[in-house]
Amino acid sequence: MKARTLAALLMAATGLTSGLEAGAQSCSPTAIKPYVRVGSGAWSNTSSATVAAGGTLTLGPQPTSGGSWSWTGCGASANTRELGLTAKASCTAVATYTNSCGAKSTQNFVLTVPGMRDLTSLQLSKLMGAGWNMGNTLEAIGGETAWGNPMATQALFNAVKAAGFKTVRIPVSWKQYADANDNISATWMARVTQVVNYARNAGLYTMINIHWDGGWMQPTYAQQSAVNARITKFWTQIANNFKGYDDTLLFAGTNEVMVDGDYGTPTVEYYTVQNSFNQTFVNAVRATGGNNLARHLIVQGFNTNIDHTVNFATMPSDSVGRRLMMEVHFYDPYNFTLNQNSSIWQWGAGATSAANTETWANEAYIDGQFQKMKTRFVDQGIPVILGEFGAIRRTEYAGAEAYRTAWDRYVARAAWTRGAVPVYWDAGYPNDNHSMGLFDRNTGAVVYPSIVSGIVDAAK
Asked: DSSP assignment of 163-175, as one string?
């Protein structure tokens, strides 16, 4: 008879069990029984709950004694059996129970917050595709039509969606519609809401911001306190107005913050104060509660310049994880994209005239700039919004349109493939020379189909 079998017989005869067998019996994972309580209601034997943003719930799995507990997911990090949560966005919390001899078992608890999906900002950005700006409209000083564009309509946003865009950015001015105490006119808030609803009715991701707004957002120590107070006052009102909107509405706190006339590298003062504006914006929105507890928010680098953003931007602290995006703009080379008095009308590898080309801002340069943003932000889980880009038309140069189209397409593709959402700057007036408009604002007709398709297809 083999020794092992004899030993087993001896243990059986004396009532003993091998250590291996004893361990296998006592260290089986313990079954978890899930319980959920919403608010102060009764406990339910379930592993899921639907709760409005801002509501509270408690997760209370069993067994109630022995062993230890730990939690992950839904922003939780706890070692208690019961876990209390404030609903912010849909998520899954995972309870891990370790019994007295070390065997682990887990239980998922699925929390659904209507309208607020279980998506990080990076995941959301991948759904946003190519975007379009309704420029020179709601931010126009003097009124919506003061800068020459017609009133926004549902038909316009339907046309933008039909053209293939998935996202719109709606720049907004607020100060001119506010009283001396920064209370925003109810009439203006209602109009902004109406336009936002046009975009959402069309099925578009929608961003609204505080745009130039008269230039009151100066990033100096002397102005810091007053500016932050106004940011808080305005964003508290805006965020409360849109508190119930779902996660397809995004807020962007600022636009191209800089000291008037100073386009150089920011001083420590300038970027420190500007970073404080971003933090103030995030704090103000989160404090309004509801769906704003986890709304995707967009902050900006200094003057939305890529190099300044990479070098000086600090992401704000936030009460919810992975719900912030960084915004930059791109108009390089300026003499080609914006300077109507320039003779630089060719661009890129297809250029034929050295006298009419700035070779420093070629394809490799564009790739390099967006790679910087990818490395600094996207690779760290922070998506990028390319909130503005575009180049003016130049009818005085035969063949210029081909270079403009190539630049628009290349920038959109370089951004999208590196994790940035490209949002074209359309200020209207599509038939005017030196304009950037793509749509007829009166009819919604696409005026430059090759540019539209180039941008839309680049972000697929």
From this structure: TT--EEEE----G
Query: How far is the C-alpha of 334 from the C-alpha of 198, rounded, in Å?
Result: 33
Total residues belonging to the chain: 460
| Residue 26: per-residue pLDDT | 57
3-class SS at 89?
A: coil
Instruction: Enumerate domains of the chain plus CATH numbers.
Output: 25-112 (2.60.40.10), 121-458 (3.20.20.80)
Output the pTM of the full model: 0.94
Pull the structure tokens for residue 141: 């000083």
316: enclosing H helix or E strand: none
Task: Kindly state the tokens that stand for 258.
Answer: 């800089």
Question: Mean of the pLDDT values across residues 86-97?
Answer: 98
Point out the residues that are catalytic: 256, 388
User: Tokens 């390089």 label which residue?
Assistant: 332
Which residue shows structure tokens 């791109």? 330
The percent of residues in the chain predicted with pLDDT above 70, rounded, is 94
**E-strand spans in 172-317?**
205-209, 249-252, 297-300
The reported pLDDT for the residue numbered 6 is: 36
